[in-house]
Design brief:
The chain is mainly alpha-helical and about 120 residues long. The protein is built from 5 helices and 2 strands, in the order αααααββ. The protein has a two-stranded antiparallel ribbon.
């Protein structure tokens, strides 16, 4: 099996990721990128342009463009819910511990619970 030689960029990134501040910013950028790609993919799957989706949400095309921008980090949960509803999807938020060992999943679907009857 052949090992690929690391590019200058790979070496540079490895070095930069040793800096905790850079590593945190890099991680956050990846999260914003994921949100942007998912929103754009859902919209395109629904056959809507940014303008079409904006009309459905009674907002501007620029707002939709901003939501789909990988550099935008101001997503509000209420706006994500509105977009999801318009696109026939649900919002799901996942919190992970720093160790990445366990994840707590919160979703828009109702969580079943039992109501205790008073005896």
């Amino acid at each position: 099996m052949r090992t690929l030689k690391k590019t200058n960029f790979d070496l540079y990134l490895e070095e930069q990721l040793k800096d905790p501040v850079f590593a945190e910013r890099f991680e956050r950028a990846g999260e914003a990128w994921d949100v942007a790609l998912q929103l754009a993919a859902l919209r395109e799957k629904a056959g809507l342009s940014q303008r079409d989706l904006a009309r459905k949400l009674k907002t501007s095309q620029q707002n939709i463009s901003r939501l789909e921008s990988p550099s935008y980090e101001g997503h509000s949960l209420s706006m994500l819910r509105r977009v999801a509803e318009a696109l026939g999807a649900t919002v799901r938020v996942v919190f992970e511990s720093d160790a990445r060992s366990e994840a707590s999943v919160l979703s828009e679907s109702p969580v079943p619970y039992r109501i205790r009857k008073k005896s």
